[in-house]
Amino acid sequence: MRRVMRCVTLWVFLTPVLPVVALMPLAWAVAPPPAPAPAPAAPVPAVGRGWPVGSRPPVLRGWQPPATPYGPGHRGVDLAAPAGSPVRAVAPGRVTFAGRVAGRGVVSVALAGTGLRTTYEPVRPSVRKGDRVAAGGVVGVVEPGGAHCGPETCVHWGLLRGETYLDPLSLLPPWLLGRGPSRLLPVVPRQGSARHAP
After folding, report:
1. Confidence band of 197 (pLDDT split at 50, 70, 90)
2. What whole-number distance in Å separates Cα of residue 90 and Cα of residue 109?
3. Assigned domain for 53 exists
4. Distances (CA, A) of 148 to 109, 121, 164
5. Cβ atoms 142, 122 nearer than 8 A
6. In this structure, is residue 140 part of a structural domain?
7. Is the pLDDT of residue 103 over 80?
8. What is the pLDDT of residues 22-36, one digit of tens each?
9. What angle do CA 90, 92, 98 make, to 5 degrees?
10. CATH of the domain at 76
11. pLDDT reading at 21 higher than 80
12. Secondary structure (H, E, C), 61-75
């Protein structure tokens, strides 16, 4: 009788637990492995050889990355430039788009060997899709009007890797941004200014 009571007691306690214990190996087999940590973003190479407009234009508005893909932010930089100013490719590449988007002229250039793409707007293109451009090559001129920069005319300069927007200023080497180290030139006496011993 004791043996029967032990079996019944054991059965009462184990009955609710058995299906869970039986399914645990299955749950472990079905559970997906933990997601790998995202790889750090590759740095942007400083391949720029010059500014898109002017020699060192005022930045009217800087890059402000959005927190989410469709969130608010500023996906590029606005550079002050008078209408009609030439717009130049900052690095060598191939034109992937030259036309109008939402009433504004846009030029996009895939930078050679980098996986990066620059965009310039509003620009009246002087290039076509497929054209190769050299660093400093003119891709168009700044269009007048447009409300992007308020009363001033500007060029909105963007940089993308795939669908991810990046800071286009990171393409420029520090010396072009005025951030390079100070360099002292050697002092060379002028002719006729050397002191003569008495």
Report:
1. very low
2. 9
3. no
4. 21, 10, 21
5. yes
6. yes
7. yes
8. 545 544 445 566 656
9. 80
10. 2.70.70.10
11. no
12. ECCECCCCCCCCCEC
Instruction: Work out the average pLDDT over 127-137.
Output: 97
pLDDT value of residue 73: 75
Count of structural domains, the chain: 1
> What's the first-to-final CA gap in the chain, in angstroms?
131
> Do residues 74 and 62 make contact, with C-beta atoms less than 8 angstroms apart?
yes
- Please report the pLDDT score of residue 121 as a whole number: 95
Domain coverage including residue 162: 59-177
51 alpha-carbon distance from chain centroid: 16
Please say whether the beta carbons of 140 and 104 come within 8 A: no
User: Which residue type sits at 98?
Assistant: A
Q: What is the pTM of this model?
A: 0.69
In the structure encoding, which two tokens stand for residue 9, read together?
């007691």
What six digits make up the tokens of 10? 């054991």
